[in-house]
């Protein structure tokens, strides 16, 4: 079942646009490969006796590996537990994935702040977390839904001079003469 993924069968995914789902998975896959390579480059900071950049590089490589295990288990099929871990992560809500990816991306920033490889590599993992966070927020409501939510606190026949009248109830309030 390694190739049965991008859609999955989670009921939460029904209200997420297809392009956002593939953007999260694609950015997670490509970004984690880039983060692993840039983490390796970041580990060369030991030459300059910069131990914090070495730790940041190792963390970034591990974070990239965890993201690629979650997003593209077919890239790590030689490890036995990858598919079960990926299936377990896939059943979690989107905000869990967002919190995991953002939490994995932040420590290298604090350890090696001035390195561009840290900014770009961990930044891609952070961006993947942001996309999953936006997916957790869900789809924006329609105009009718937003108008109904805006008028929920006001009486239906409120006069125009009443301070509780919203712009949606009386468009003459905001229309130019």
TrEMBL record:
Keyword Transmembrane included in the entry's annotation: yes
Keyword field: Calcium, Calcium channel, Calcium transport, Cell projection, Cytoplasmic vesicle, Endocytosis, Endosome, Ion channel, Ion transport, Membrane, Transmembrane, Transmembrane helix, Transport
Record field: transmembrane: 27-49, 61-82, 94-111, 117-137
Pfam family for this entry, one: Cg6151-P
Any Gene Ontology biological process: endocytosis
GO terms, molecular function: calcium channel activity
InterPro entries per record: TVP18/Ca-channel_flower
Assembly and binders: Homomultimer. Associates with the dally/ magu complex.
Assigned protein family: Belongs to the calcium channel flower family.
Protein's recorded name: Calcium channel flower
